[in-house]
Amino acid sequence: MAIKKCIFEDKTMTAEKMLAALKADFKGYEDMRAIMLNVDKFGNDLEEVDRMMASVHEMVSYTMLGISGTYFGLDCFGMVNINNRDNTTYGRNTGATPDGRRAAESLTNANNPTAGMDKNGVTAFINSLLKARGDIHFGVVQNIKFSKETFNDMRQSVILPLMESYFSRGGTQMMINVVGKEDLIKARKEPEKYSNLIVRVGGFSARYVELADDVQMDILNRTLN
Predict the structure, then answer these.
(1) Where are the domains positioned within the chain?
(2) CA dihedral 111, 115, 119, 120 (to 10 degrees)
């Protein structure tokens, strides 16, 4: 979306300038990075960027289904978009990207919004997720993080209606973390006191303090609803 908007539509930069900024990890190009960060992001119930995500999702899903019968003799072969912690481990070796992400930072976990980029609230987040078809893959991860206060005090008014809406409209999976941001911050400072803190990563559960530092940061930076 940033390439489409910045280069071809708004013409705020050339392809050569964008490439130079990415190769420099935005050093000396902070003004251009600000423009890229300001482009609409998936996860905010914004139709154009959400449909772009959905079209990529369809392309990947149909590509995988298309090799059924030819891969190890399997009659059916499909896409499972559950990357566990690999969005972080692969991100370590991935350069800066046009959405404003710096080199070596975590990539997006599965088909969720980039951490911190969903800014229009949990309803908008859910609406964006549902624009990707749920009938052409074999599984995807949907991560969502609630504060303890929201989950405990607003369970009947917010949490249960939200989950009912998501699954009744075709949602396929939801992985929920209920944790205070302050707990994650304290656990990073004093891990010996938080050995029992369990979190959902991206397909599995783990003790937070045993995760690699950048994986911990990826979970910490997810939007807190």
Answers:
(1) 40-221
(2) 30
